[in-house]
Structure formats: structure tokens, C-alpha cells
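Fold this sequence, please.
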Amino acid sequence: MAWFSKKPRIATRQEPAEEQPSRMQGLWAKCESCDEIIYRQELEKNLMVCPHCDHHLPWTARSRLAGLLDPDSFEEFDKELEPLDPLGFSDSKKYKDRLKSTRKNLGENDAFISGVGRIEGHQVSVGCFVFEFMGGSMGSVVGEKVTRVFERAYELKCSALLFSASGGARMQEGIFSLMQMAKTSAAIARFRTGNKPYISVMLHPTTGGVAASFAWLGDIILAEPKALIGFAGPRVIEQTIRQKLPEGFQRSEFLLDHGMIDAIVPRKDLRAKLGQVLGLVG
């Protein structure tokens, strides 16, 4: 029998089989600092802090709120608010398409989650940035939700608490984004007439218009270890002034040494520290 067939073979087009996710996918994580491979379940139990070197890995906003607030105390508000495209902005991708795909991937409407909860029994109006949503950039909706955190705290006569992690203003919304710096700062000024404290917790990174407005206006300013905090990034500053910056410039340790923040609090100690502060001044 010949090794080939003279009869023509008609190829039929088949749809590619859907790729089945590996059972091991996502079970392990690699530390960005010491390169150790860590069992993800162990890492999550440790609040996304490396057990080998204490490096603070990214922690999602909802996990952070669930881990720091009293169990079942968080009530979310303003979830229905969604950003629009007032400028019809387009770069490599249309802004409205970028929003649509990001919403689908993350299941969040924008880069900020807000509501009311309790920490060791103390009521707080709380907000937390979703850095995975376009770098936690602040557009019109983020600014509105931040403003409502302070308005809600004023009405409820409770403390305000914000966790900031952002690349700054959202360029796709232009001046509408920059206006949020003044808007949120004005909301803080009104909130302060109620004589309740605003606690600002700066995460890695907190930069741009967010750092230049409400993030640095806290009555008490805390930060996580080694967080990058500042307006412009170190590389931009070096290129502008044409000088080499000091070692660790704009990291939370550097800022603490120079009196720019009140304390650096490791993640595992943050809930207790917030409870202590609220008990003293809240």
C-alpha cells in the first residue's frame, strides 16, 4: 500500500477549542522584592505581604475594605455612577472603549469604591481607590465619589477615611479631571467645620493630582512601607532639574524623616492603628 493517498482530502474548518484554564493557574505568586515563590492562599492570609521579606504586594480595594473594616459593617454607596466621555477622547484606543473593556475585566464601574463602615465600632465614611482601573486615575466620577465621602461624613457626624493609590488626574477627561482637585479640597474644608478628623492613608503609589489635593490634606496622614508618594515622579524631576535625587526620595520612609507624614504603618498593624486613632480623636 502506498504511503500516500491519491484521493484528495477535503479539509473542514473547525472552530478552535476553547483553552481550558490550568488547575494550577493562580495558585502561586512571586514576590516583586525577594523573588520568592509563595502559595497564594498563604499570601492572602498574610494580607498580601510577603512572609519572607515583608514586601507589601498590591492588595485589591475590596479585599482591603473587607480586611480592615468590622465584619459585615461596610455599606457601599454611589456604585451606579459611571464615567462618560465628555471630550470624545481617543489615543491608541477610544476612551469610551477603554472604559467598557476595563469595566468588563474588573467588574468595577470606576477607580473608586466608597461607602460607610466601622472600625472597632467607630463609624467612618470610607473610600478606597481601585488602582487596577486605569492606574487609579481621577476623573469626574472619582472626584464626585471622593467629594461624597466627605459630604456623607459631615452629615453623619463621623470621621472620614481615604485609602489613596493613584497615578493622578485622568488625562482622557482633561480639565474636567483637574477640576476635581479643587472640588474635593473644597469638600474637605466644609467637612472640617464639623470638627471630625480626616485620616488619609497613602498607598503605593500616590502621585499626581491626587497627592496634590485631598490625599495630603488629612488631619492624620499614614502610609504603607516603601510607598511612592509625590506629585511628579523621580525620573521627571531628575530630568527637569538635572540633578541626582537622594536615595529613597519620595518613598514613605524619606517623607517620614522629613516630617511630611505622621507615621508608616505596616499592613498587619493598620486596623489596630486606625482603631486607636479613631478612639482618640474620632
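Residues 8-24 have pLDDT under 50 and may be disordered. The first strand starts at residue 28 and ends at 30.
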